[in-house]
Amino acid sequence: MKNLVAKIGTARLIIIAFFLFLCAMIGVYDIPMAMTATDVLVRFGMHTTLVLSMVPGIACGIGLNFGLPLSIVCGLLGGLIALEMGLTGFPAFIIGILISIPFSVVVGGLYGMLLNKVKRSEMMVATYMGFSVISLMCISWVTLPFNAPELVWPIGKGLRTTIDVSEKYGQLLDNFLAIKIGEHFSIPTGLILFALLMCLIVWLFFRSKTGVIMRAAGENPDFAKANGINVDRYRIGGTIFSTVLGAVGIIVYAQSFGFFQLYQAPMMMGFAAVAAILIGGASAKTASISNVLIGTFLFQGVLTLAMPVANKVAPDGNLAEIVRILVSNGIIIYALTKVKRGE
């Protein structure tokens, strides 16, 4: 038993126990279980690709990618350009992803070169870079030449703070091949399949020759250099891969959420993704697909279940929002302390 606790981790066991406790409370307070289960599956699917973007960064040696906001900006640009073109449905979704990839490759390459200059301080520099880019984009969103009425303010200049995509491709993946069981429970088949497809792509990549070399360069750069491997090049490649996945992830997130959120909204999204993969069992040096799936499910599951339970406990107060903040920030703090210890 002690070995099992040591392997899983005390904090992770507490989170699992809390998740199971919330599941029990759903039954005790007679909260619609089918609807809540659907929400958990949707939130799991819409966040998985964002959390998955951490894996290449960890594998190539740059550590946890706190610079995820850079990826998100690339994805937002691709998605907005597709909407500016007047596209809807799957064409808008796919073209948005395709447009975001060149942005991601360029940004990821420059970002990777910067991280090569600041080795051993990558995560700190990445955090500052993410914050700085979001602040810079607050100016850019006002000046970029978008003209579609649904994107820009009706009076004045610049893009709206929140852009509704529900009429364009809202819940596109959620509803694709969705399986309805009863009146309230629905499995977002397309969303789950897309998340698993992204996981499969990453899994296959790290079993290719390039992926194996990249992981070796990240785990032991000195040994890799001694064997003639260009470690810096593979670090840049992993950073680009991470940036592309993050850009795809925000478009997947937006189609489920129903909105693109600009300006300051993406600033803290990197912390939630970092927390999720660490809760799943990853560290700043090693990560796997299973860490992504387990961590995303636990993190989003706890957040999803905590709010309706809190509303039942204190229906006349604002306890649900307080609980959401405490739970999400508590998990993030745990994740950051784990990084500090170098686990």
Q: Could you explain the architecture of this structure?
A:
The chain starts with a helix and ends with a helix. The protein has a single domain (2-341), classed as ABC transporter involved in vitamin B12 uptake, BtuC (Orthogonal Bundle). Helix 5 (68-84) packs antiparallel against helix 6 (89-117). 73% of the residues lie in helices and 3% in strands. With 343 residues, the protein is mostly helical.
Determine the structural class based on helices, strands and strand pairing: mainly alpha
| CATH architectural grouping | Orthogonal Bundle
Number of H/I helices:
16
What's the count of strands? 4
Provide keyphrases for this structure.
343 residues; globular; two-stranded antiparallel sheet; 16 helices; 4 strands; ABC transporter involved in vitamin B12 uptake, BtuC; mainly alpha
Describe what is shown at a glance.
The protein has 343 residues and is mainly α. Helix content is 73%, strand content 3%. It has a single domain, classed as ABC transporter involved in vitamin B12 uptake, BtuC, CATH 1.10.3470.
How are the secondary structure elements laid out?
Blueprint: H1 2-8, H2 10-28, H3 33-52, H4 54-60, H5 68-84, H6 89-117, H7 122-143, E1 162-164, H8 166-169, H9 172-175, E2 179-181, E3 185-187, H10 189-205, H11 209-219, H12 221-226, H13 231-257, E4 259-261, H14 269-279, H15 289-313, H16 319-341
Antiparallel strand pairs: 1-4, 2-3
Helix pairs in contact: 2-15, 3-10, 3-13, 3-14, 3-15, 4-13, 5-6, 5-7, 5-13, 6-13, 11-13, 14-15, 14-16, 15-16
